[in-house]
Specification:
single chain; 288 residues; mainly alpha; 77% helix; globular
Length: 288
């Protein structure tokens, strides 16, 4: 069950990142974050009301609040790092966030078997290579590296926090709703501040019409992200966090394959090798 839900997480996060990346080419990143998370929160509000999940409210929801506060900061740091580039350095470094939940699992006393340790090592190498690391070229700005490491830590922290935000299915619905509301509050505040400083909230060409036309895609990104958080929480609760975190972090492979399938982008040799290693690591983890 852990492997199944963790792999579902990587699929959902990979597709959400692919969709979010396409949308940020047409509109400001903050707008993508706020609108997509608002759509997800609206759906979750209905689910929470129908299932009576409000009864699950408790102190553990502070983990969801923390995850909701960290998430937008990590995402915006990652987008800014990508803008500074080069992407061949930023993308692989961003994948290193898996070290956070893996470390938490090891500190908590988890001791994977030899086969699983090998799977973790192989899969992590595959994840980094799938991002297409740039081994030569222009020097990397120190600020880009710093922002990427902040983003990586944030992504890993969200994985660890959301796994502790609930212990039941209905409680998970409430935790995800609280996380999204916090996302909106933090992202909305950042959007307001950026507009006050002269940035645009809407695309320069098309304005609000572009956002309205993209609402289905924005909703998909938000809901895929929510579903990924949910499946990861289930995976982490039903098996070793070290295994769940690594398998869930295979999403860069999914994003690369989606770009290949939908946009016709060719995988570089290092990315193809990374995808292959990630697959080998997955098999080792699932069978170990």
């Amino acid at each position: 069950m852990t492997a199944l839900f963790a792999l579902a997480t990587s699929l959902l996060w990979g597709l959400a990142d692919f969709g979010g990346g396409l949308l940020t080419r047409r509109m400001p990143a903050l707008t993508v974050v706020v609108v997509s998370q608002t759509a997800a929160a609206a759906v979750l509000a209905v689910i929470v009301t129908v299932t009576g999940a409000w009864s699950e409210a408790g102190g553990q929801l502070w983990f969801a609040v923390a995850a909701g506060a960290v998430g937008p900061v990590a995402m915006l740091s990652f987008y800014k790092a990508l803008a500074l580039g080069p992407m061949g350095v930023v993308s692989p470094l961003g994948s290193l966030g898996v070290a956070v939940p893996v470390s938490v699992g090891l500190i908590a006393g988890e001791r994977p078997g030899l086969m699983q340790f090998a799977g973790v090592a192989v899969a992590v190498v595959g994840i980094v290579l799938a991002g297409g690391p740039q081994l030569r070229g222009a020097p990397v700005q120190r600020r880009a590296v710093l922002l990427t490491l902040v983003a990586a830590f944030g992504f890993g922290a969200v994985m660890s926090l959301i796994a502790h935000a609930s212990t039941t299915v209905t409680g998970l619905f409430l935790a995800l709703f609280v996380q999204r509301v916090t996302n909106i509050a933090v992202g909305g505040t950042a959007l307001y501040v950026s507009v006050r400083r002269g940035a645009r909230a809407l695309p320069e060409e098309g304005g609000a019409a572009v956002v309205r036309a993209a609402l289905p895609a924005l909703a998909f990104v938000g809901l895929a992200d929510v579903a990924a958080n949910g499946t990861y929480s289930i995976a982490a609760q039903h098996g070793p966090v070290t295994v769940a975190a690594v398998l869930a972090s295979l999403y860069p492979v999914v994003t690369a394959l989606a770009a290949r399938g939908f946009l016709g982008e060719r995988l570089r040799g290092v990315q193809a090798a990374g995808a292959g290693l990630a697959l080998v690591g997955t098999v080792l983890l699932a069978t170990g």
